[in-house]
Amino acid sequence: MVTNAQKANGAGNIPLGIPTQDQELAVRARLTQALQMSLDPSEIISLFFHQIQPLVQMSGVLFKSATTKDDARVGRESLHHCDYRLTTDEGYLGEVIFSRSKRFSEDELARIEQLLSLLVYPLRNAVRYQTAMRLALLDPLTLVGNRAALNNSLKRELQLANRQHQQLSLLMIDVDYFKKINDDYGHHRGDLILCDIAKNIQSVCRSTDSIFRYGGEEFVVILSNTNSLGAEIIAERIRQQIANTQIFHNGTGINTTVSIGISTHNGEHNEEMESLFERADRALYRAKQSGRNRTINSTVMPLFHQ
Questions:
Q1: How many Cα atoms occupy the beta-carbon half-sphere of 73 within 13 Å?
Q2: Is 306 within 8 Å of 295 (Cβ atoms)?
Q3: Are the C-beta atoms of residues 261 and 231 closer than 8 Å to each other?
Q4: Domain boundaries, the chain
Q5: β-strand 258-265 against 295-297: which pairing, if any?
Q6: How far is the C-alpha of 122 from the C-alpha of 131, rounded, in Å?
Q7: Burial category of 194 from C-beta neighbours within 10 Å (exposed 0-12, middle 13-18, buried 19 and up)
Q8: Is the whole-model pTM more than 0.90?
Q9: I want to staple 190 with a disulfide (CB 3.0 to 4.6 A). Which of 119, 182, 241, 304 is the partner?
């Protein structure tokens, strides 16, 4: 369903050429076929934009999804625009905004509304598919990336680091004495602590860093284009942030700490994921053996500790 069409700056009567009925039917047929070819919302919007040009010329289109922060934009924004809210039987899908330098005529607006009826369900299917794909790569408890997402991201980041000769660092983070927390306060409270730790890691990390739950009480952070010293600084900020945070249970504050192991890929030679993980894991083991609540680098002695 297409509702609430808003016509910015009014609707004009500037003809751009009236298509024949045969032309319109041909465009609609091609459009219907093209929209079945992708499950990427951005590509769906791009296909729609290019296919309808023979019927309604425009300079740009923007789709604002109701369920994600990822807007899909094609072309350029211009002075005049018309906005449409897209809804299905499942609810509000998002908003589509068309723009161009000339005002849209009433006939063109009516034609756009008819064409949008062909867009709604292919776009809904694409949004639904992309949402399912994102959820498949999220840890359902902490809502950070899961192990499958970690493998995909690290493989991609290693390839990029090798190609651009950049450094890449990995943090392996383990919650100290987590079994005791579960034994003393219950698994539900333990789950809440894991969620809180994930939020603390996110609050410290940069927008370019990627955070994952590796399994159990272990987390991994990928630090793109980050050398060994930079990784130690970020790791120490994470350690301090978590150590300074209390979670209250029945009026009692629960203090948690983490141990962190670091490994860094120097970008000068190809390194397998397993090697990078192994070095970070050895550093984490040393952090545990050294008393916990500390950061240890796989190549140097710790600069930071309790």
A1: 8
A2: no
A3: no
A4: 2-134, 147-297
A5: parallel
A6: 14
A7: buried
A8: no
A9: 182
Length of the chain equals 306
CATH class of 147-297: alpha beta
What pLDDT digit, counting tens, does each position of 211-268 carry? 999 999 999 999 999 999 999 999 999 999 999 998 877 777 888 999 999 999 987 6
Rg of the chain (C-alpha set): 26
Residues annotated as part of the active site: 217
93-131 tens-digit pLDDT: 999 999 999 999 999 999 999 999 999 999 999 999 998
Per cent of the chain over pLDDT 70 is 92
> Cβ(231)–Cβ(209) under 8 Å?
no
3-class DSSP state for residue 186? coil
Distance CA 263, CA 235 (A): 11
Residues whose CB is less than 8 angstroms from the CB of residue 41 and which lie 6 or more positions away in sequence, other chains included: 63, 65, 70, 72, 123, 126, 127, 130
Amino acid present at 209: D
2-134, what's its fold? Beta-Lactamase (3.30.450)
* Tokens representing residue 39 in the block: 């499950």
Question: In terms of Cα–Cα distance, which of 277, 240, 244, 245 is closest to 261?
Answer: 277
Q: How many CB atoms lie within 10 A of CB 64?
A: 17
Taking the C-alpha atoms of residue 282 and residue 113, their distance in angstroms, rounded to an integer, is 61
Q: Which residue has the tokens 């919007």?
A: 45
Cβ neighbors of 133 (< 8 A, separation 6 or more) are: none
**Secondary structure (DSSP) of 56-125:** S--SEEEEEESS-S--EEEE---SEEEEEEEEETTEEEEEEEEEESSPPPHHHHHHHHHHHHHHHHHHHH
User: What is the DSSP secondary structure assignment for residue 212, as one 8-state letter?
Assistant: E
Position 2 scores a pLDDT of: 57
The rounded distance, in Å, linking the Cα atoms of 182 and 185 is 5
Cα separation, 143 vs 208, in Å, equals 17
